[in-house]
Design a protein that fits this description.
- The protein has 203 residues and is mainly alpha-helical.
- It has one domain.
- The protein is built from 10 helices and no strands.
- Helix 5 packs parallel to helix 9.
- The protein starts with 8 loop residues before the first helix and ends in an 11-residue tail after the last helix.
């Protein structure tokens, strides 16, 4: 499930810490302020991700948030792999994702992590990332529920890793667990039939 540890615990810990800090950068809030949209935490669902930015009506700000939230996860993985190796890349993937969900800069109250998840999976292995992105797109198109699409992409991440013969699925598996936990309220609303659909306001 994990590649063999080839680096010292000190170096792996450094990679984890730096990836966490990068993942903690709240680009949704940054974009909202740059575009004069107000405090994102007081808008719509209060979430710091691209979906909530889109509720402001500013598609460019939402697009930039999506790209940057994905990129921070991907960059963390690529840098860790380039400087240390695959063991550090797997750790950086999870800790960057963890940083987005529980950012130190916002009192550990962050987003739900879907864009950052997809960015880390693309960097870990592009076929894995493409499979997760395709899952999101198909589920979103069929059911018009963004949260359901994110949950499906996250939960199927480790499955795709195994099916595609990726050497390690530990980071995708850990992220899948956290995706479900971060979406527990959404899951409850999906089961109740009250979860807002794409294009409509709500949490």
């Amino acid at each position: 499930m994990m590649p063999p540890f080839e680096q010292s615990l000190a170096l792996l810990g450094l990679a984890a810490g730096l990836a966490y800090l990068l993942g903690s950068v709240p680009f949704g809030i940054v974009m909202a302020r740059l575009f004069g949209l107000g405090d994102l935490r007081q808008i719509g669902s209060g979430n710091i991700g691209a979906t909530n930015v889109l509720r402001t009506g500013n598609k460019l700000a939402a697009f930039l948030t999506l790209v940057l939230d994905a990129a921070k996860g991907g960059i963390a993985v690529l840098l860790a792999r380039a400087f240390l190796g695959e063991d550090a890349a797997q750790i950086a993937a999870f800790t960057a994702f963890l940083g987005h969900c529980y950012p130190v800069f916002l009192g550990f109250r962050g987003g739900k992590g879907v864009a950052t998840l997809l960015g880390t999976l693309l960097a870990l292995a592009w076929p894995l990332g493409l499979a997760a992105c395709a899952t999101w797109a198909v589920v979103a198109a069929l059911f018009r529920i963004s949260s359901l699409a994110g949950i499906a992409a996250g939960v199927l991440g480790p499955v795709f890793a195994l099916l595609l013969g990726q050497p390690a699925a530990a980071a995708p598996a850990l992220m899948a667990v956290l995706i479900v936990l971060r979406h527990k309220d959404n899951i409850r609303r999906i089961l109740d039939g009250t979860e807002p659909k794409i294009g409509r306001s709500g949490a």
